[in-house]
Design a protein that fits this description.
mainly alpha
Amino acid sequence: MNDPELQKTVLELFYACKAREAIAVVEASIESTLDPTEQEKRRKLFSYFSNHNRALVPYYQRRGEKPPLSEMPTTD
């Protein structure tokens, strides 16, 4: 996407674990540009996000948990 504000909005939605909303923003933005090349890029991005929506937000974030941390070995 060649619009910095649109990029920022989509990323903020992903960081807030709102993948569906981010995908909807990308879909709505397709017709907001008159450049056919940019429209095609956004269609591809929308298709990718739609097909991989379960992987866009890590599992631990979907449940609101912190990521698992490996334990540091102790030296005795």
